[in-house]
UniProtKB/TrEMBL annotation:
Top enzyme class: oxidoreductase
GO molecular function: mannitol-1-phosphate 5-dehydrogenase activity
E.C. code: 1.1.1.17
Annotated family: Belongs to the mannitol dehydrogenase family.
Pfam families in the record: Mannitol_dh, Mannitol_dh_C
Protein name (Swiss-Prot/TrEMBL): Mannitol-1-phosphate 5-dehydrogenase
SUPFAM superfamilies: 6-phosphogluconate dehydrogenase C-terminal domain-like (SSF48179), NAD(P)-binding Rossmann-fold domains (SSF51735)
Keyword terms, alphabetized: NAD, Oxidoreductase
Reaction equation(s) it catalyzes: D-mannitol 1-phosphate + NAD(+) = beta-D-fructose 6-phosphate + NADH + H(+)
Domain Mannitol dehydrogenase C-terminal: 255-431
Length: 450
């Protein structure tokens, strides 16, 4: 087996080699998983290629695991991305750090101008678990402290996670951990622009690695597989210099919120509905069922789209059609178990917030409620539950629908007191869970309006 590296890059076809070779590190990324490697790192390389500005190499940092470093370090941090039929080796990543490495020094380096994060929804917590490592937010604040002490200049910190108001959320968490002198420095030198990211990146399989080896001519254990579609919308609020991401197709705007809400609710909300209702192994299989695809269309049209505003110049109908096409792509093999993880952290912004808005407008969000009922059935019947609140979610799978809904709605971190006490929402979810349990999904969809 010949492994991908700079020494073996000549074996790769010229058209599949990196577009740029950075000479310096200008971006530090926290959470260097598959999504970052298929999204922000690609935009960064394309920006360097478009401008010739090669100062924007990426230093990626893992929060808990050494797995990504184990894949990329032997390959000189090179890896391939397959997007549809297009395959290219990406060279924008220059270094991968593991827990224990000096992340603060990289954050304090004068040439570092931007920090990006993909740490997932559950990464946005203040304090570490008693027996756990420092949080990503804590490590970021330690880096800001070192940067302030070094007087290393301004820094832009861009959250790329699926959270509403991700920039403001991150800024608030950082602020809480800053002592007064550091807070004063940060207020003058650090910005936290919001962003919205969109690209479906399923977990890489052994078959994907074999396919990439056949295409590249070398073995690439860090390869990622994604779809051709990609989108990045960033609030134009940078503290200093930045990669020319706009030259690579990113959209710089004054207000990200309309785009963020659209993506969280239409794409991610539909994904959650697929994960908790369909029973399929892959997203494409779920959408291949005409009745279920029809339910997704109605979910987007009737319960989710009415909560979206500020998109008058955007082709919302075309975007929804494109989502169903993307979901139906069998080449992605996007496993629903990957989407189903951490549901307690995802449901509020994906489905519960739009449910609140529909209830406040006097409408019954029946289609959202069915997806929530599906989640309740999932957490009470799953053999293994990947969720930070798993101990509180699991319960008697034979309890009646009303008892299960009563128990789970009482978890205020998820539903808040408003949805817990909303009789309309409670009745809709209870009805949906009863139907799913008694009749199954197909019959429930046939009789949804009765």
């Amino acid at each position: 087996m010949v492994r991908l590296s700079r020494a073996t890059l000549s074996r790769v076809a010229a058209e599949a080699r990196p577009l740029a070779e950075p000479r310096a590190t200008g971006v530090v990324h926290l959470g260097i998983g598959a999504f970052h490697r298929a999204h922000q790192a690609v935009y960064t390389e394309q920006a360097m290629a478009a401008t010739g500005d090669d100062r924007w190499g990426v230093c990626g940092a893992s929060q808990r695991s050494t797995a990504v470093a184990g894949l990329l370090r032997p390959q000189d941090c090179l890896y391939g991305v397959r997007a549809g039929d297009d395959v290219r080796v990406i060279g924008s990543v220059r270094e991968v750090l593991v827990p224990g490495d000096d992340l603060a020094a990289r954050l304090a380096a004068p040439q570092t101008a931007v920090v990006t994060l993909t740490i997932t929804e559950k990464g946005y917590r203040r304090a570490p678990r008693p027996d756990g490592p420092p949080t990503a937010i804590g490590r970021l604040v330690a880096g800001l402290r070192a940067r302030a002490a070094a007087d290393a200049g301004p820094l832009t910190v861009v959250s790329c996670d699926n959270l509403p108001g991700n920039g403001a959320t991150l800024a608030a968490l950082v602020t809480e951990l800053c002592e007064p002198p550091l807070l004063r420095w940060a207020e003058q030198n650090v910005t936290f622009p919001a962003s919205m990211v969109d690209r479906i990146v399923p977990a890489t399989t052994p078959a994907d690695l074999d396919d990439m080896e056949a295409r590249l001519g070398v073995r690439d254990l860090g390869a990622v597989v994604t779809e051709p579609f990609t989108q990045w919308v960033i609030e134009d609020d940078f503290a200093g210099d930045r990669p020319a991401w706009d030259r690579a197709g990113a959209l710089l705007v004054g207000d990200v919120r309309p785009y963020e809400r659209m993506k969280l609710r239409l794409l991610n909300g539909s994904h959650s509905a697929i994960a908790y209702l369909s029973g399929a192994e892959h997203v494409s299989e779920a959408v291949g069922d005409a009745a279920f695809a029809g339910y997704l269309r109605r979910l987007m049209d009737e319960d989710l789209s009415p909560t979206l505003h500020g998109l008058d110049a955007f082709d919302l109908a075309g975007y929804k059609r494109s989502l169903l096409t993307r979901f139906a792509n069998p080449g992605l093999r996007h496993r629903v178990t990957q989407i189903a993880a951490d549901g307690s952290q995802k449901l509020p912004q994906r489905l519960l917030d739009p449910a609140r808005e529909r209830l406040a407008a006097g409408h019954e969000p029946r289609l959202i409620a069915l997806a929530v009922a599906g989640w309740m059935r999932y957490v009470t019947t799953a053999r293994e539950l990947d969720d930070p609140l798993a101990d509180r979610l699991t319960g008697d799978p034979h309890a009646g629908a009303a008892a299960t809904v009563e128990r789970l709605l009482a978890i205020e971190e998820i539903f808040g007191p408003d949805l817990r006490d909303d009789r309309v929402f409670r009745d809709l979810v209870t009805d949906g869970l009863h139907r799913l349990t008694a009749d199954g999904l197909a019959a429930t969809l046939r009789t949804l309006d009765t």
